[in-house]
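Weekly modeling sync, notes
Attendees: S.R. (lead), two postdocs, one rotation student

Agenda item 3: backlog of single-chain predictions. S.R. asked that every request posted to the team notebook include the full sequence so nobody has to chase files. The rotation student volunteered to paste the first one in as an example of the format we agreed on. Action items at the bottom.

Example entry:
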Amino acid sequence: MTAMSGQVWVSLISLGGVVLGGLLSYLVQHRTQLSAERAEQERQHIALSETRRAERLALLERFIEVSAEAERCAYTRPSEWEDTDDWYLTTRDVMYRLWVADRLIRIQFPLSVHDAAHKHFLDLNRTVWHGLPDGESVRDYLEDNRAAFLDAARAVMSGPGG
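Predicted structure, as returned to the notebook:
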């Protein structure tokens, strides 16, 4: 009976060891899986941030490029024009593209950047369609809001998530 009791104890201890080993193995595998999932989520977050940054840079480039075209239209603005003149047709297209770029800035950027971009857009719109008083420089008139827009965009792009 004692031999049988000893065998039972050995079997129970062995079974306990197997259960404990299995439990520890499960815990290690579970922690490893959670760690791998967190690493994958972080990788996806970084990839999404890089994609958004690239989209924002492309949008900034588009806005700056078309605002430069609008500025050239302001410099070449004739004192009078007709709806069929080349200047008007070109300028109408440029200003439409600038309007679209301005709206896209509002979608992709914080309002501080859009507000600065929109002020620059309004300056360009006024200068292109209504001109400036005699003696006022297009470059000087546009400079302050252009610089404010570029500074706001730089601040956002330099910050976290930019």
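Discussion: group reviewed the output briefly. The chain has a mean pLDDT of 91.
Action items: rotation student to repeat for the remaining queue; S.R. to check formatting next week.
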